[in-house]
Design brief:
By secondary structure, the protein is mainly α. It has one domain: Rhopdopsin 7-helix transmembrane proteins (Up-down Bundle), CATH 1.20.1070. The protein contains 10 helices and 3 strands, in the order βααβαααβααααα. A 3-stranded mixed sheet has the order 2-1-3. α1 packs antiparallel against α2 and α3 runs parallel beside α7. The longest helix has 34 residues. It starts with 8 loop residues before the first strand and ends with a helix. InterPro entries: GPCR_Rhodpsn, GPCR_Rhodpsn_7TM, Olfact_rcpt. Odorant receptor. Belongs to the G-protein coupled receptor 1 family.
């Protein structure tokens, strides 16, 4: 990436080229972003102020909520600004940094989903050893290692996407700087870059989904051996929220990235909206509305808040 390369400016074509749809879409996407911020900040705050939620499960949940905030903020503000602006140009450096941070937080999200599955596996399959295996130190080590691996992965991703030559059209047919639309603008051979990206994506996403699958296979085997139907129902209910989040995130990610670039269609933008806008908004509701401990902590917090206001 030489000096001339960094002078390139791209144009983000956005979600639609219809001028009449820009303002309605701005309102339509502003609400999910606000809900994402409020919901995830609420989850983090509730876990911090509720001693009953100071467990590894909710430690990982706060990390997940923080990642959702960052992950969404990388994409949504720029997308919202472009919907109201006629100038949709983005510099080479800004485009590269947007992609880097997007890849960084997306990789962390994958690892956190795997950690949360492993946490549930230990809690259900080895409850007597849970405190020893999933200690506070282990939690921090797992999160730190995911940040380190995500950082290194994002560097490789970014080099593969922006390390070639751009000498043709500069119009990115997307609402952010993503892998496929940027690679389409490169005039140098992208085959080796695509292979590296595919391999790294396989390690990050397929590797973490394997951890999740193995954890849930072990969980299902353990739950089916339980004598009490109530215990089985409680165990499955504990895992249901995580499974919904996994399905939402990995389903759209696999659709986007585990297919050849030539087969990508207009549905890519819809899939991108789901995992960059919709998923971060829904996750707080998935984990709070289906979780008795979170709802109980929220009720206690509301009572304390009401008492303080009365005083």
């Amino acid at each position: 990436m030489g000096g001339n390369q960094t002078q390139i400016k791209f144009i983000l074509l956005g979600i639609t080229d219809s001028p009449h749809a820009q303002t309605p879409l701005f309102v339509f996407f502003l609400l999910p972003y606000i809900v994402t911020l409020v919901g995830n900040v609420g989850i983090i705050t509730l876990v911090r102020v509720s001693p009953s939620l100071h467990t590894p499960m909710y430690f990982f949940l706060t990390q997940f909520a923080f990642t959702d905030i960052c992950y969404s903020t990388v994409i949504s503000p720029r997308m919202l600004a472009d919907l109201l602006s006629e100038d949709k140009t983005i510099s080479f450096t800004a485009c590269m940094m947007q992609f880097f941070t997007f890849a960084f937080f997306a990789a962390i999200e994958c690892h956190l989903l795997a950690m949360m599955a492993y946490d549930r596996h230990v809690a259900i399959c080895q409850p007597l050893l849970y405190v020893t295996i999933i200690s506070s130190r282990v939690c921090w080590q797992l999160v730190a290692s995911s940040y380190l691996f995500a950082f290194l992965s994002a560097i490789v991703y970014t080099w593969c996407v922006f390390g070639g030559s751009f000498c043709g059209p500069n119009r990115i047919d997307h609402f952010f700087c993503d892998v496929v639309p940027v690679l389409k603008l490169m005039c140098s051979d992208t085959h080796s870059s695509e292979m590296v990206i595919f391999a790294l994506f396989t390690i990050n996403d397929v590797g973490t989904i394997v951890v999740i699958l193995l954890s849930y296979i072990s969980i299902i085997r353990t739950v089916l051996r339980m004598c009490s139907a109530q215990s089985r129902a409680r165990a499955f209910h504990t895992c249901s929220s995580h499974l919904m989040a996994v399905s939402l995130f990995f389903g759209t990610a696999f659709f986007m990235y585990l297919q050849p670039p030539s087969s990508h269609r207009n549905l890519d933008k819809v899939a991108s909206i789901i995992y960059t806008v919709v998923a971060p908004m829904l996750n707080p509701f998935i984990y709070s509305l289906r979780n008795k401990e979170v709802k109980g902590a929220l009720k206690r917090f509301q009572k304390i808040h009401c008492i303080c206001l009365c005083l």
